[in-house]
Protein: Lipoprotein YerB
Organism: Cytobacillus solani
Amino acid sequence: MFNRWMAVSIAVLLLIAGCSKNDHTAVENEDELNEIPEEESIVDSSEEDLPYQFPLTGVGTESKSDSRAVAVMINNDPKARPQSGLEKADIVYELLAEGNITRFLAIYQSEQPEKIGPIRSARDYYIELAKGYDSLYIAHGYSPEAKDMLDKGYIDNLNGITYDGTLFKRASFRKAPHNSYISFENILKGAEKRSYEMDDAPSALTFLNESELENLNGEEALSVMVSYFNSNIFNSIYEYDEELEKYKRYTNGELTKDYESEEPVLLDNIFIVETDHKVIDNAGRRKIDLTSGGRAYLLQKGKWKEVKWENVDGKILPVINGKQAGLVPGRTWINIIPSSPGLEQTVSFDVKE
């Protein structure tokens, strides 16, 4: 599969402009990561006729979920892979930071993973996305713009600059800035310490019902590549597993999976959004337009179609003919890409003849 992509990616990626600077913002302390007791697992709600749904996955649950969303900045440097806790996120946003890197904003509500990380520093546009779900925002470090927002109380947050070695722990098996982790237990401890309310669930997203799922239309999308740069290090290849009816994600030829359990990230919705990006300083920091709306691709159940995206109360959502498009119940990954070069040059479909 990846040999086939190599030929495609060379032609596609030469058209894409990359930046040269890498992000080196981090604190340097290193402490060994403490063991954390296992959490009780969330009910697997693949069973039918459960009375409630998790608001960000649409998956059934036996009891109403009132947990506040938690949004965590997760490192995607090759030295930080594989990450911990990523497979349990309800929604993951992937956006450019400085240089030739992307970072993840992982939003948790239906599950509370034992350990999450490596944690990375805040940027203003990630904060805006976290705010859209009224999340508690978790990061380690910040840009000047992000620090100003956090200092002014724009969003409830816990930052490793303040809590390094207490709530945030340093893993011995990686070097800074790729070794900061936090447990969900410590997230809740920090929220209590700061008197943050954690019992207010985000508003529910729109999900497809059984009949709509059976009648999904679109073109074949069994294997799709999203490329950001002229190398494979930060591309994403989504392979549809027809038996599981979910997408698996690969980067640089490696399956995206949990560091400890090796459980893969399994996705039900891939949403690829193009929007204006602008480099605003000598460090390569960016301004990303998350409000204007525009073109997007939506991948579900092995099919894709072109849609629009809109910012609805801070959330980036798919729209078809002016109406919010339903999501397949499950987990969602959102790639936000520059409008230059745009969708056609960034996204490649491997169509079997």
Notes: The helical segments are 2-13, 124-131, 144-151, 160-163, 184-193, 210-214, 343-346. The CA atoms of residues 13 and 231 lie 7 Å apart. The longest strand covers residues 303-312.
